[in-house]
Write a structure and sequence with these properties.
By secondary structure, the protein is of the alpha+beta class. The chain contains 13 helices and 25 strands. The protein has 3 domains: 279 residues, no CATH class; 145 residues, Cupredoxins -  blue copper proteins (Immunoglobulin-like, Sandwich); 138 residues, Immunoglobulin-like, CATH 2.60.40.420.
Length: 605
């Protein structure tokens, strides 16, 4: 799925790789006088390295004019290219096959690297060197295994020393789709790894060709009785044991550094099955101790999970009418992943109840028997907690404590009798820092059994607060930590200037129910045009003597305030958070602000 700019780049890269490979294969078999093993070496390496492989072929091996191949390939740097091509073709094939298999098996990254090394070395030694080169080198198969073991060992060590850090850092970096063989990014990392591995193996291969330890490029003419080698025919070497020991030792140290050093910065204990496919927020600090659970909770919502898209014409927090069964008020909530519009042209991928953010307002009366059926359609488990309510423990919704989480496709039935009244909140209580931050919350309004007319107002408006983190078209759960700070803020699922306008007339009163449905910040909520009276706190109605006037209240996560504001003068009066950044949209003000702002439009009578 194409969801980030790198995906489009990779699509172009692999298209070019396919064209480059087709060209190299066509030209090799049309008129280039290389042995079949070298033809396939260049074809495979071009497949892995794309246009860079084709470039190496044209510069180092493509016969410029008929009959000139022998002289064209003589320079040592070209012979080194041929030797490295032969090494990379075999070793990289084994490495890539092993990487795909170990990812599918869910093996941790550190085991993955070891298996890749062993498979790449075995494929290069037993197949590409000893088997495919047998007709060129002569002798028996096992003689060739013995003769090529040390050169292949040295070359493979240097190559894997280059590939291992690329795979470790990029597969365990921000975009861990790179761990999943079904994603383009996995193959992009493999391609880059082969390119880096070629570069790190090349110097050693140049030395081994010059020393007579390895073959370079070759020429095989039709009708000729033998093959012409670039440096010596047959192979002879005067390398001393001390020299071999030195270069072999350096190759082992380089390999160890490339394989082990990344473990200082990334968690190589994780596997594609643990975290494959997740994308981390920009700037999130991940180190060798970051567990998979943290990565999964911090990851972006994957666009493939989005089940529906809603524009600004669809409101959140719409009241949910119940049905009545044997005197019980029954509400139904379905969780799903949706694309929700918070501003013109700005959408977030959200977790939603009943396809809306916030979830529907649930309203009933003190003393009612209530049943709420919750069906989960998220890509992970969930529960629902009824914040502040007195109810049986098994109905409390705390995952793994009062109930087992609801699996995808599962249903859980919550049932209780309302013994309280006031402003309450419901929200997820499984992966709460992720799910509530992505939109799983809603208002629960319980009317008193006996009306209290001192709380009456001409209008009523509920304010549910939320923070969002949206970068590069992806939505992450916002929270107050490195890399997860929010850049959008909403009231009832909309950011100003797309928030509601509340119409009133001078002399009328407005009851505002402030609900801290957000996860991370305390929001000092302020109303312009004069003070309001605080009449209830956390669902508890204040006695008349305890009620007080204020113009700003600090609404923390989970808190609720009921306030009554009187329209004293005509005009447009703001309700807003008094933290400046929270009244911007991605740090930009539009028509006087953004984010946590909404307008009360008061007209004269």
């Amino acid at each position: 799925m194409l969801i980030r700019p790198i995906d489009y780049f990779l699509l172009i890269w692999f298209a070019l790789a396919g064209l480059s490979t087709a060209y190299v294969a066509w030209d090799q078999y049309r008129n280039n006088p290389e042995p079949a093993v070298m033809k396939w070496g260049f074809i495979l390496v071009t497949l892995y390295m794309g246009p860079l492989g084709a470039l190496l072929y044209v510069l180092a091996d493509k016969e410029p004019r008929p009959g000139e191949h022998e002289n064209f390939i003589k320079p040592l740097w070209k012979q080194g290219v041929g030797s490295t091509i032969h090494c990379v073709a075999g070793d990289a094939t084994g490495i890539i096959l092993a990487a795909a298999v170990t990812a599918a098996l869910g093996l941790p990254m550190w085991i993955d690297l070891i298996v890749e090394y062993a498979t790449g070395f075995a494929f290069g030694l037993f197949i590409f060197q000893s088997l495919f080169m047998k007709s060129v080198m002569g002798g028996t198969y096992w003689q060739n295994v013995r003769n090529t073991f040390l050169p292949e060992f040295i070359s493979m060590n240097f190559m894997m020393a280059g590939m291992a850090p690329v795979m470790s850092f990029l597969m365990m970096g921000r975009d861990m789709r790179a761990m999943d063989p079904t994603e383009l990014l996995f193959w992009g990392v493999m391609s880059l790894g082969v390119i880096v591995g070629f570069a790190t193996a090349y110097p050693a291969n140049v030395w081994m060709v010059k020393a007579g330890l390895k073959h370079g490029l070759m020429t095989e003419r039709k009708g000729a009785s033998h093959t012409h080698h670039g440096h010596g025919d047959p192979m002879k070497s005067d390398v001393t044991p001390a020299q071999l020991t030195a270069i072999a030792s350096v190759s082992v140290l380089t390999l160890a550094l490339g394989m082990v050093a990344p473990a200082n910065w990334v968690n190589l204990r994780l596997s594609a099955r643990n975290v494959g496919g997740t994308i981390m927020p920009p700037g999130m600090i991940m180190d060798r101790d970051t567990p998979a659970e943290a990565m999964l909770d911090m990851a972006a919502v994957h666009p493939r999970d989005v089940a529906a898209t809603y524009d600004l014409s669809i409101r959140g927090g719409r009241e949910l009418p119940p049905r009545v069964e044997n005197g019980v008020k029954v509400f139904e909530l379905d969780t799903s992943v949706i694309r929700w519009t918070i501003l013109p042209g700005v959408t977030v991928d959200a977790y939603a109840f009943n396809g809306q953010v916030p979830g529907p307002a649930i309203r009933f009366r003190q003393g009612d028997r209530v049943r709420i059926d919750v069906r989960n359609r998220l890509p992970e488990t969930t529960t629902v907690h009824w914040h502040g309510l007195i109810l049986p423990n098994i109905m409390d919704g705390a995952a793994h404590i009062t109930q087992e989480p609801i699996e995808n496709g599962g249903l859980y039935r919550y049932e209780f009798t309302a013994v309280q009244y006031g402003t309450y909140l419901y929200h997820s209580h499984d992966h709460i820092d992720r799910q509530q931050a992505l939109g799983l919350y809603g208002a629960m309004i319980i009317e008193p059994a006996e009306p209290d007319h001192s709380l009456d107002a001409d209008h009523e408006y509920t304010v549910l607060l939320q923070e969002w983190l949206m970068r590069e078209g992806l939505t992450y759960p916002a929270m107050p930590m490195d890399g997860a700070q929010p850049n959008y803020f909403t009231i009832n699922g909309r950011a100003y200037p797309s928030t509601d306008t509340i119409p009133m007339k001078v002399g009328e009163t407005l009851k505002v129910r402030f609900i801290g449905s957000n996860n991370g910040f305390i929001h000092p909520m302020h109303i312009h045009g004069g003070p309001f009276q605080v009449v209830a706190l956390d669902g508890q109605t204040l006695q008349p003597s305890a009620r007080y006037d204020a113009d700003t209240i600090n609404v923390g996560p989970g808190q609720r305030y009921d306030v009554i504001w009187k329209a004293r003068n005509p005009g447009k009066w703001l309700i807003h958070c008094h933290i400046g950044h929270h009244t911007t949209n991605n740090n930009v003000e539009t028509r006087g602000g953004g984010g946590l702002m909404t307008v009360i439009d008061v007209r004269a009578r």
